[in-house]
Design goal:
By secondary structure, the chain is an alpha/beta fold. Helix content is about 35%, strand content about 20%.
Length: about 375
C-alpha cells in the first residue's frame, strides 16, 4: 500500500472557497491524508469544523505556534510532512517562516506574502534546505495551460513577440460604492490584504500565467491603477504594460469592478510562426493560429498533446475537468517532489515564482504612484 503524506492545513475553515478547493485537491490522487491543522482563528470553531467534516480532532491546534510545538514533539515518522497555508494574506509570512525554520514542506496560497521584503526573507530561509515549496497559482494546473507551455518550449510559435493577458472579475462592484459594504471583505482592508487588492488577488495570477506559459521573464512594468474613490486605499482595477526585452512587449489587464464578469482570465501569445489563446471559463479549448492554416482547436486527453498535459487529465477526451482538477494536479506534483519521484518543472509553481509575484505587485504600484513610469523587476 502506498504511503500517504500527512497533510496539515492552516485556514480554510467555514465556507471558505479556497479551503474546500485545497481539501478536494489533496484527496484527488490519494497521495495525502489530512491529519489536522488550525482551520479557524478560534480553536472551538476549528474543532467543530473538523468534527463536521469527518477530520481527526486529536491534532487540531490553536495556532501556528501550537501546531509546531506539538508536531515537533511527535516522532519524526508521525509528524505532518507538509502544511498548506490557505489563510488571508497577512498571516502567510509568519506561518510560512516558522514552518520553514522547522523543516516542514509548504504549500502556500498566493500572494506569497504582503511585501516583497517578506518574500525575500522566505527565499533566504529555505536556502540550503531540501524542502519542497509550492505556491498555488491554480490555473497552471489546467492541461491546456500546460500544453501552451510545452508548445512554446518546442518552438511551435517561433520567437515570442507579443503577450496579452486579461483577468476581469466584477464581484467588488456591488461593494466598492458603499463605504460600509467595503468593510465586509478583507480584500479591501490593507491590514489584512496588504498594499494591494486587485493586483495581489488576481493580477499576480495573470503575471504568473505569462511567465509560466512563455518561459520569458518580465523585465520592466508601467502601470495605471484605479482606486475609483479617494477614500479607498486599495487598487480595484489596473492596466500594466510589460517589457520583456527590446522587441518583446505585452499588456496585463486586471479588474475587480468589471461589471458582470465572473472569472474572466484569458491569455494570448503571439510568435513569429503562430499564436494561441486560452480562456479559463472554457478551459478545455486551446486555440492555435498559424499563417495560411485553418484555426486549430486543441483539447485535453488526445495523443497529440505533450506528456505533461496528458499526465494532467484523469478522464478520456470529452469529459470536462475544471478548477478542482487543476489544483489537484498541483498537489500531485508536490507529492512527487516530496517523495523524490521524477516530476516536470511545470507541475507546480515554486517559492521563486511567489517571490517574483510580490516583486511584480510592488513594482507596478511604484510605477503608478510615481506618475506611471517604467520600473524594473529584479531578475536575480
Amino acid at each position: 500500500m502506498r504511503k500517504k503524506l500527512k497533510l496539515g492545513i492552516l485556514g480554510g475553515g467555514g465556507n471558505s472557497l479556497i479551503g474546500v478547493l485545497h481539501r478536494v485537491a489533496a484527496y484527488m490522487y490519494e497521495h495525502y491524508e489530512i491529519v489536522g491543522g488550525a482551520f479557524h482563528s478560534k480553536y472551538e470553531s476549528s474543532l467543530e469544523f473538523a468534527k463536521n467534516n469527518g477530520l481527526p480532532t486529536d491534532r487540531i491546534y490553536k495556532n501556528i505556534d501550537d501546531l509546531i510545538a506539538k508536531e515537533m514533539a511527535l516522532p519524526e515518522t508521525e509528524r505532518m510532512d507538509v502544511v498548506s497555508v490557505v489563510t488571508p494574506n497577512f498571516l502567510h509570512f509568519d506561518m510560512v517562516k516558522k514552518l520553514l525554520d522547522n523543516n516542514f514542506h509548504v504549500i502556500c496560497e498566493k500572494p506569497l506574502t504582503t511585501t516583497y521584503q517578506e518574500a525575500k526573507i522566505l527565499k533566504k530561509a529555505i536556502e540550503g534546505k531540501h524542502l519542497v515549496f509550492a505556491v498555488t497559482h491554480t490555473y497552471t494546473g489546467y492541461p491546456m495551460v500546460r500544453e501552451m507551455r510545452k508548445l512554446v518550449e518546442s518552438g511551435r510559435l517561433g520567437t515570442i513577440q507579443k503577450v496579452d493577458v486579461q483577468y476581469y472579475q466584477g464581484w467588488i462592484n456591488p461593494i466598492i460604492h458603499d463605504v460600509e459594504k467595503r468593510k465586509t471583505t478583507w480584500h479591501l482592508d490593507p491590514e489584512k490584504s496588504g498594499k494591494s487588492s486587485c493586483l495581489a488577488d488576481i493580477g499576480v495570477h495573470a503575471f504568473n500565467m505569462i511567465e509560466f506559459t512563455t518561459g520569458l521573464k518580465v523585465d520592466k512594468v508601467l502601470s495605471d491603477l484605479n482606486y475609483l474613490y479617494d477614500d479607498n486605499p486599495m487598487d480595484i482595477d489596473g492596466t500594466v504594460l510589460l517589457r520583456f526585452s527590446k522587441n518583446v512587449k505585452g499588456v496585463l489587464r486586471s479588474s475587480q469592478v468589471a461589471t458582470g464578469e465572473e472569472n474572466g482570465l484569458s491569455i494570448k501569445i503571439y510568435g513569429d510562426k503562430a499564436g494561441m489563446k486560452w480562456e479559463q471559463e472554457d478551459p478545455n479549448f486551446l486555440y492555435l493560429m498559424e499563417e495560411d492554416k485553418p484555426l486549430q482547436v486543441l483539447k485535453p486527453g488526445h495523443a497529440y498533446n505533450s506528456e505533461l498535459s496528458l499526465n494532467s487529465v484523469k478522464l478520456p477526451p470529452g469529459h470536462p475537468e475544471g478548477i478542482f482538477d487543476a489544483m489537484g494536479n498541483i498537489y500531485l506534483g508536490v507529492a512527487k517532489a516530496i517523495k523524490g519521484e521524477p516530476y516536470d518543472s511545470g507541475e507546480f509553481p515554486t517559492l521563486t515564482d511567489g517571490v517574483r509575484g510580490m516583486n511584480f505587485i510592488e513594482s507596478a504600484m511604484e510605477s503608478h504612484s510615481n506618475g506611471n513610469i517604467w520600473v524594473a523587476i529584479d531578475n536575480e
